[in-house]
Amino acid sequence: MMKNNFRKYPASKKGFRAIIWLFIILLLVAIPSYFTTKNDIKTLAGRYNSPLSPIIMIPGSSASATRFEDLVSTINKKFDEHHSLLELTVHKDDSITYKGSIKNNDTRPFIVVGFENNKDGYSNIKQQARWFSIAFDALKSRYKFNNFDGFGHSNGGLIWTYFLEHYYEDDGINMNRMMTVGTPYNFEERDQAKRTQMLTDFINRKNKLPNDLTYYSIAGTKVYTDDGIVPIGSVEAGKYIFEGQINHYTLITLTGKNAQHSDMIDNPQFISLFHQYIIDDKNATSPNNTDRRSVSK
């Protein structure tokens, strides 16, 4: 008669071994989760206590990350301030190169995000908004700010709008104010009743915009119908996206010298408006209001 060589364990012993294995598995799962949670809490705590409030800028089509160097220099001299300038370029392979730095104790630095592919067109704007989201994620990870302001020149405003509607998530990082200059929400179309696909898409997703945002849209007039490139009606079409959707929307018409599309950021009146409403937040306009203004120089 053959003997059975298999050892038999009491049921209680088998249950004890199962509990040990279950404990080991739970421990292996819990340890990484613990360190991940600990790092997340540390990041949130650092972000919550951060005094940094950068002004993030996007240039228009065909312009690089160096587009606003003269503007920053002028502001520093005119108002006797010392804002840092950090310039990022996002490349076609999603990599980022950096130029400049943020000085210690500078709570209001300028950060410019440009793109290797800075061409015009709706398809490029959508791609540039995706690239901007990559840069934005890198910035918030590196500098851990909890609020910021935005500026866009021309198509830079379109990139901001697409980013806010598709990529921006309010995860403890608040966008306070935005200012754009010569942003063509309806491209070259003068008749607001003839909406381009881009304007239609923006209107359809306007509920994704941060409802506590304050926005100043500046339109320039060279011949009272356009700024030499962008029709006033195209800039004004932004009202269909922002009015009644965000906390405060102001449309400002800039006339006179240097009110042309490419020259507006050199306009002394624009520089004063930019400093008052974006840099110096103490002078921000009261909320819950829609406003239209005309400024001449």
Largest sheet: 9 strands, mixed
Order of helices and strands: HEHEEEHEHEHEHHEHE
Which class of secondary structure composition applies to the elements? Answer: alpha/beta
Extract low-pLDDT stretches: 36-46, 282-289
CATH fold label of the largest domain? Rossmann fold
Number of DSSP helical runs: 8
Give the arrangement of secondary structure elements.
Blueprint: H1 11-48, E1 55-58, H2 69-78, E2 85-90, E3 96-101, E4 110-115, H3 122-143, E5 147-153, H4 155-166, E6 174-181, H5 197-204, E7 214-221, H6 232-236, H7 239-242, E8 248-255, H8 268-279, E9 289-296
Parallel strand pairs: 1-4, 1-5, 2-4, 5-6, 6-7, 7-8, 8-9
Antiparallel strand pairs: 2-3
Helix pairs in contact: 3-4
Describe the structure.
The chain has 297 residues and is of the alpha/beta class. The protein folds into 2 domains: 32 residues; 247 residues, 3-Layer(aba) Sandwich (Rossmann fold), CATH 3.40.50.1820. The chain contains 8 helices and 9 strands. A 9-stranded mixed beta sheet has the order 3-2-4-1-5-6-7-8-9, with helices on both faces. Strand 5, helix 4 and strand 6 form a beta-alpha-beta unit. About 6% of the residues have low confidence.
Structure in a nutshell:
This protein is 37% helix and 21% strand. It is an alpha/beta fold.
Keyword list:
single chain; 297 residues; 2 domains
